[in-house]
């Protein structure tokens, strides 16, 4: 869309919203009503051409650097114009009689893949190059260096892809091309100036004595304490018209910085009691139906552009597979804050996994998973048997043995709410005398398994397992360490979620269900997952042992073709 002088794009968006209220969330209707209310005020005014200067700068210099539009100049959507126009269009006279911007801080919360990166890059680059601010210090801040790089890379690429911007700018890079900042040097009337861009993550000690002109807090929901936000905000006080831009999706947990700033932003939206803060939040209305496609469209302003219904349908299918995936869908794609301690599975999602009988497994191929504890945790040996049902569909049968010290067993039964003694009588638990796990008993069980089944391999969690593993290797058993990192565990968790949802996983041990229902999963910044024993309130050791073995068995979950089904039937009825 061409930015023409005198055209008020904020007006265009507000009229579109008010004519079609059912298509927009109440939070955006409130933002539009606030804009319209401000236009009737006498103490502030809206300068269309100043707002449009910013819009024109973004469309003239900021380029897409990824995806099908890579290399093309940015073309702002009307909702993005509404955000920028409000940030840069409102003016008033300050106490000194100088005309300055009204908005000093902006909170923009939209779901994933709706263009937050472009909004962030456009605003920071305009502060550095377009506003004419002399000696502008600009910062891109995030919870850690990796997240800060996600914000910094498109900014540096925009500079490099624009000859007018790169001509007098030095970009500073570190290891593997990481961005630490940029320095723009220029002269006006023979006087030298420099505007800076710096990447920040956690450490703000270097801000003492400085007064940032522009601050980008990227993905505010991921920040865990208020220090960075508060330090950066207080450092801007001496500037006449600074800008802090907070961009975020909804997150997890009620204690995050994002949640606290979000609550204040919502209060300002309701009461219009802080002129310095602009708020735009795309979130569902109260009592929303998370399965309603109209809700999806309502909260994703870039639907049909950078977000498609097909993509959302794919994520929705995943969301139905576990409580964790549902929380991910709600927070990332519907922009809803959720409880950060949600367990990965809900009862109804896993209860079908438990069966009375797995059938005759003697001589069958299996892979072992070992999660070894010392005292209070459960030690578990998981036997994963890749198999097929009568239709040739790949399934996984899981036998498990748990080892528990029998000291204070009555107390432990009450504390864990698990009938360990009854489970021991049924053959699902082995007691170790005293307060410690007896590794010799675990070894004896593994040897017994090797005699009965076709054991291919032992995968193990390296913690506390080394001596036992050495003994297993001396038996000729191949042993593979599996570290509990998200980069390692993510694929096993995803596949487990899938096979449980598709009813391909079977076990006869109730403790597997107990452990599965206790699992809390943590994600890194790339969305890769791992089970967390620290955040899981009760024991998850059996599920971890299963996952460790599933590193191998997930590769074997392929359905049989017609020839394979014939062979299977022949084996069954032989």
TrEMBL record:
Residues 79-266 form the Terminase large subunit-like ATPase domain. This is Terminase large subunit. Pfam families: TerL_ATPase (PF03354), TerL_nuclease (PF20441). It comes from the Bacteria. Gene3D superfamilies: P-loop containing nucleotide triphosphate hydrolases. Residues 272-553 form the Terminase large subunit-like endonuclease domain. One of its GO terms (molecular function) is endonuclease activity. PANTHER family: PROTEIN YMFN, PTHR41287.
